[in-house]
Amino acid sequence: MSILAIAFPAQAAVPVAQSAILAVVAAARPLFGIGVFVTLFLVFRPLLAGVLRAALLVLKPRKSLEQRSVRSRLRGILTLNRMASDLDHCQPNVASELRAFAARG
Questions:
Q1: Residues contacting 22, CB < 8 A, separation 6+
Q2: Which of 47, 56, 74, 94 sits 20 to 30 Å CA-CA off 64?
Q3: Phi and psi dihedrals of 61, rounded to 5?
């Protein structure tokens, strides 16, 4: 038997009111189970968050500082080149300066 059968002993009820009590118990059991689940989730939320982060690090490890700085620099170069290509038709001098900045890295 489960803990819920101990928590709601419908067998101890008077036989006349037993069907009404069984209906109340049948309606209360899922609510009680959901309440227990939510309580356990709230109590162990920091532990669950840590386990989730560890699992994510196993699947996708964090890049090193050097890799992140190279990626940031490349993103900046690509942004400057994109801006230069947008300004190429209306302001060619500004576009060439932006390309020069992008070439410096």
A1: 10, 13
A2: 47
A3: -65, 155
SS3 call for 5: helix
The SS3 of residue 60 is coil
For the residues 62-88, what does the mean pLDDT come to? Answer: 94
List the one residue out of 21, 29, 23 whose CA is nearest residue 5.
29
Q: What is the mean pLDDT of residues 44-73?
A: 95
CA dist list (Å): 19 to 12, 22, 24, 60: 12, 5, 9, 55
Give the pLDDT confidence of 27-54 residue by residue, as tens digits. Answer: 888 888 889 989 999 999 999 999 999 9
Query: In sequence order, what are the residues at sequence separation of 6 or more whose Cβ sits closer than 8 angstroms to the Cβ of residue 76?
Result: 102
Instruction: Indicate the residue type of 14.
Output: V
